[in-house]
Amino acid sequence: MQLDGLPENNMVLLTGTIIEGCVFSHEVYGEGFYTFRISSERLSDKADILPITISERLIEKELLQVGGRVEIAGQLRSYNNYNSKKNRLVLTVFAREIRMLEEAEDRSENQIFLNGFICKAPIYRKTPFGREISDILVAVNRAYNKSDYIPCIAWGRNARYMANLEVGANIRIWGRVQSRTYQKRVGDEIEDRIAYEVSVSKIELPGRGEATEEGQEVPAAE
Q1: What is the pLDDT of residues 187-197, one digit of tens each?
Q2: Do 156 and 132 form a contact (C-beta atoms < 8 A)?
């Protein structure tokens, strides 16, 4: 499976190990959809725990057993969760292709490409150790007049580059899908939660050039 050459504005390629088996999610026009979670290894010792949504027509769900390794090509999608008192944005990787990996296939993939529009003013900040960070929310168009709203995070010079971008600007992003644990106080209790976002490695503003992870701007082609 490859990202290159696909005429899409939202492309994800992942490999990982299944850590939670399939659970029924919902049905659309008689087609059932299931969710499961994978652990996608980083170059470091850490791993990203990512939710996957898949149609029952893509693969026999009985094959998706805990411990099995999979390769998935699809899209990072968002939807609103109305089950709680507050409306909450939920992200999932929507699988369009999937295959089980053989034991001999020692692969580690986590790539994403987005072509969308900044829909919220970037938030720039520094950590206590002086590391620069920018958060943006990118709207990516989908069929049937829908959009996915994808949180993205950039570091260092990329963060400075993104800090002054205007709402409505078209932006192209390359990076990886990552998970992040945090704690939130709910009433008198502290809950452990997982947030999902795109960690940006390269950005490009059509007509203005691109910035790499090192923050060097490259002029756009004539």
Answers
A1: 788 888 888 99
A2: yes
